[in-house]
Amino acid sequence: MKKSRVFWYQKLIVLFLVSIILNLVCPIQIIHAAVLDTEILTNVTTENNSQTTPEQRWQVEEQRQVDFTIEGSQRLDIDVKVLAGRKRAVLVYPSELIGKVQASTEARGEIAALLKLTDVAMLSEVLKAIEALLNIEIDLGLVRVDLTDFRQQVQLLKQIENLGTQSFTAPIEATDTHAIVDIDNTLGILLSDLTTNRLMNVLRAAKAIKVEVRVPIVGDLLATTLKTAIKLVIDLLDPLLASLTDPGKLGQLQAQLADAAVLGSADITIPTTINRPVGMTEELDSPFVATVTKEAVVNLDLLTQSSNKSFVYFAPEIFELSTDFPDNLDFGTHPVQMIEEENWSALTGENYTTGQLIVTDTRLLEKNWQLSVTQEGDWVNLGKTLPGELQLTLDPPKSTFIDGILEIPQNNQIHLQANQSQPIASLTNAQSMGELTIEVAHFNLYIPENTKKYTGAYQTTLVWKLSDVPIGP
């Protein structure tokens, strides 16, 4: 508490305000190892670009655009192909932010995959026919045939089995609790587009193959074998490619390709908009689970146990009053007289002593508060009172609140009477966050005429009060 004293020595009055009471009413990057059986990446890096850390927290903005990125490589300790379900990137929101996170409509990233085309049921017969054709031993002395282009196109087809890094965008399925990117859907589209185009080139090359007999009879037999094998490739490819104009058949191929594919690596970004929680009085560390799984149904309860987490760090909301006053207000030394009224100014050197009050309010709610001061009791010295009146002169306030109604005392003057609360400022109907600064430009102690003064030290207590609801007239 800051208290006020009055000193009287040898018929000289020395006044000091020695204390005043203040009363207030009111991208991190983490690397993990996969730990859940359904998680299919290892060396996972999860990060976000919220630009928050435990030391640098989200302060006052109501909303931020935050991207979550999941990066990792394929686990080698499990056979991913035996897991049932679809491969998905999943972002699970912390419970305290449910309803506060809105995922974007589209994710982006890069993926690489490995697969065996022979594991794709819709392609198995065609691939067997292609392999049979390529395994025919050809004696160019008996027939004239050029399979160079056909072999090249088949080789390009097989290169799909080691799918290099591919950039992609994909739709996000979002709820109030999580966001999902269906990797199988993305893989299926990428792989089916490549596969279809390369199968078409294989078909074109097969149809362009010409077989000519050089040696009758023996050459005829080899030529017939080649033509039969070529025809089988064409007869299988033509209807297969034609069927892919049917969305259902195309979807079936995409699903089979995706299911056969094993992720070699993934780097997936899920953009979100996060709304800051309201009413926080303490620091908040919010863990987002960001991982890649393969399962029939996403098990959110299980995923919360994953170590693949990315944190957003929030600072508490601020509603506080801070003050900057000297420890003592020196009202000077004056000759004793009891007849005339007196006004004594607090001085620092030759200048008026000043003070400062700052109200900071970053709460995400409508602001309605009042700042007031109360002199609790008279100026007292061993049971004797001094009927002095402390008068404060305020400079015009400085406010960063952009809305609401700010009110201050008329003429910027405050006259303190014992046990009476005096308003200093009030703010109502404000939605914005901000800061109000009030400078006390002058402290004056008024002593009425005909006042009895007694030797000794007088003191009183001032209480500054910030009330969350404005005080009525």
From TrEMBL:
It comes from the Bacteria. This is WxL domain-containing protein. Residues 321-470 form the WxL domain. It comes from Candidatus Enterococcus willemsii. Residues 33-314 form the Putative adhesive domain.
